[in-house]
Amino acid sequence: MNLRMGYLTPKQSLIWTLNSNGLTEASIARKLFVTRQTVHHALNAANQKIGESLQETANINKIEIETVDLAKGFLIGYSAHFKSQAFITFSAKNGIQIWYKHEGNCEKCKRLKKCKEVLLEEIRARKLTLPDQSSQMLPSKLAEILFSEITGGKKDGHT
Predict the structure, then answer these.
(1) Mean pLDDT for back-to-back runs of 10 residues, the chain (159 residues)
(2) Helix ranges restricted to H, the chain
(3) DSSP code at position 105
(4) Please, are residues 145 and 123 in contact by the beta-carbon 8 Å criterion?
(5) Is 0.70 topped by the overall pTM?
């Protein structure tokens, strides 16, 4: 197990992902041919591990924690070092990711392609609607979409 996957077992990861996509515990149990109690226990364990991973990541990066949402797999905080709002996300595909709000110069960044791929996956994992031209958008715009949704529509978040 590693921090990248939030220390989840494959079964916990699957159950957490299904639940974060809107399936109820009973629906997940039927889908996986297990009891609802099995799903409930796995989901509780997954949420605890994800919470610990998000908090550990915030502590390591000296991010003051403002909000944590285990069901959606995110933490919002503030980095005094970067003087910026910070977002830590968890998804089964990307594991733990840290994002800092800033006006980036994406066109010149060596990580442009990877950053865009991860942001698109984070948006898809959360079942958010992408604009028609999202494949041509810069990561800073994709981050704005993702973090606006995470923060409840406030204009927060740039990579």
Answers:
(1) 64 93 95 97 95 94 95 92 92 89 78 89 84 82 85 52
(2) 10-20, 25-32, 36-60, 112-125, 139-150
(3) -
(4) yes
(5) yes
